[in-house]
Amino acid sequence: MHPQPPRRTTHAHGTPRNRLVYDRWGRFGRPVVLLHGPFYDRTMWWPVAAELDGNCAAIAVDLPGHGESARRDDLSGLTQHLATLVHGLDLQRAPVLVGHGESAALAHAFAARYAVQHVITVEDGDLAAVPEAYRQFAVRRSDPALALTYREWSSVPVGAAPQAHAGDGPFPHLRDPAAFATLIQGLVRC
Questions:
Q1: Strand ranges (DSSP E) for the chain?
Q2: Can you tell me whether residue 127 is helix, strand or coil?
Q3: What secondary structure does DSSP assign to 105-123, as a single string?
Q4: DSSP state of 165
Q5: What percent of the chain is modeled with pLDDT above 90?
Q6: How would DSSP label each residue in 15-46?
Q7: Whole-angstrom distance, CA of residue 109 vs CA of residue 103
Q8: Distance of CA 74 to CAs 55, 126, 163, Å?
């Protein structure tokens, strides 16, 4: 019998008022926390998370007000809440954080306070370079009220964490999920 890839499971963390919903692939290995940008959701990471091997435990989080996570008016405690979620997974290793678009600010804020192995930033932008089969994973949903909640993200200073920028152009994780997974796996083995 051939080994099966890790299957996706969906979980919720926190109370109903501060609930974060996340998907998880794998139980062991270096945690890879995948953070979507504002107006997307955790499903944007499904193609690349499915490509990661047993050396990683991928966690794709719905940020507050996105997907199935509870909406919040105040995001000031989000870094700590994310750290509590990661710690609660009991993976015993510093994570790799991947921040898409403005969520790179959250990844860097996390790295400024907690141990991380790497921070990877991914650009947002035009979907024209993304193959048609993967465009369904990058559906942007406009929400003016949510825009007010996340308005300060672009002004957050980027910290000095070990980081990599993932390729040229927008959505490298959807342009070639296998290549993006290979990039992450290379960092995990460093």
A1: 8-13, 20-25, 30-35, 56-61, 96-100, 118-123, 163-170
A2: helix
A3: HHHHHHHHHS--SEEEEEE
A4: E
A5: 57
A6: -TTT-EEEEEE-SSSEEEEEEPPTT--GGGGH
A7: 10
A8: 35, 29, 27
Pairing between β-strand 20-25 and β-strand 8-13 as defined by DSSP bridges: antiparallel
Residue 160: pLDDT above 50?
no
CB 16 within 8 A of CB 70: yes
The average pLDDT across 176-181 equals: 94
Contact in structure between 43 and 137 (CB atoms under 8 Å): yes
Q: Which residues contact 110 (CB under 8 A, 6 or more apart)?
A: 79, 82, 83, 97, 116
Residue-level pLDDT at 161:
44
Helices (H) and strands (E) in the chain, counts: 7, 7
Predicted confidence (pLDDT) at residue 158 exceeds the cutoff of 50: no
pLDDT digits (tens, 9 = 90+) for 18-55: 899 999 998 888 999 999 999 999 999 999 999 997 77
Q: What is the pTM of this model?
A: 0.90
d(CA 107, CA 63): 12
Place of tokens 């994310």: 82
Q: What is the mean pLDDT of the chain?
A: 87
| Spatial separation of the C-alpha atoms in residues 97 and 184, rounded to whole Å | 10
